[in-house]
Please model this.
Amino acid sequence: MTVLIEEMSIQDYDEVRALWLAVEGIAVSEVDSKNIIARLLAHNPGLSFVARVDGQLAGAVLCSHDGRRGYIDQLAVGHAYRRQGIGRALVSRCLFNLMRSGIRKWHLFVLEDNQDAIAFWKKLGWTERVELVTMSQHGPNAA
Ligand SMILES: CC(C)(COP(=O)(O)OP(=O)(O)OC[C@H]1O[C@@H](n2cnc3c(N)ncnc32)[C@H](O)[C@@H]1OP(=O)(O)O)[C@@H](O)C(=O)NCCC(=O)NCCS
Model:
């Protein structure tokens, strides 16, 4: 199996969205609309990737940074392509390019009941931050 990893472009959006909707553990919300993903890609060139096998979308990941820390989001690998290193390869490309941008630390959110993803991230050397609490607030026009 030859896996091609390429920078995500907004032309990939419909396939990527379909993948997000097809896998467990990924919430698709208003911030995953085409306009907002286009904005993320434009603000963070060279950080988000898709994986293709024989032209078919096998996986995708969003990545960004704010100048201080990096953020990984919406990592998904299709069921037929799992446990073959695609998730690891996508994350490696993100981290390599974050480091090239001068970023030295990165974070992500995982739903507490997504134990498979937590096991995956631990396998990749990530640490669970049990001392942190996530706090959020909606702006006045939030859905
Ligand atoms: C999590 C996910 C991206 C992993 O993708 P993948 O391509 O199968 O992962 P890889 O093959 O690159 O696995 C990398 C390592 O993690 C391990 N791993 C992968 N899934 C695992 C699981 N469910 N439990 C334990 N270990 C796992 C692999 O065995 C591998 O270890 P190794 O290199 O020592 O053999 C994929 O299962 C997925 O899309 N899940 C649904 C969406 C999701 O939950 N995304 C994460 C949101 S935070």
